[in-house]
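Q: Hi! First time doing this. I have a protein sequence and I read that you can turn it into a structure. Is that right? Here it is:
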Amino acid sequence: MKKILTLFALVGLIVFSSCEGPEGPPGPPGQDGLIAEVFELPNVNFDYTAKDGYYIYRKLTPNIFSSDVILIYRLTGTIDANTPVWQQIPRTLYTAKGELDYDFDFSKEDFTIYAGGNYDLSLTPELLKNQTFRIVIVPGDFSSKSVNKPDYSDYNAVIKRYNIDDSNVKKLN
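A: Yes, that's right. Below is the predicted 3D structure, encoded as structure tokens:
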């Protein structure tokens, strides 16, 4: 009798361990469905109002998650045709006229880049016109992990850490 029960148990084990249900749909790309992205604002000019000063405002489409963060970098020059130099903002520039500060704020729906200073910024139009910025969206799950955080001031380190392909960056208008 023990041999028959053992045989049934063995057959049952094989039958039930071989069962497989339907495969679920594939998840979104990225680490656990999280996607880091980069966008570019090429050759933009700061707008000006007496109330807000100099600013660039853009909507985020689609909205980001409330836990996500945004990093913004300004193109400061190039080493050669294939090597741009990106500088993280906020940043203070020291000019012959005085100090100019680039700063930004963001929500899950939009972001604003500001330019302010301790002099009349219209005296340095080269710092307000035809500026190029890169906006990097880092999912909150990535930014909350303390292991392997990149140097956020280094655009290339951020791109590498979050596996972002910036060879074909989406342009924002």
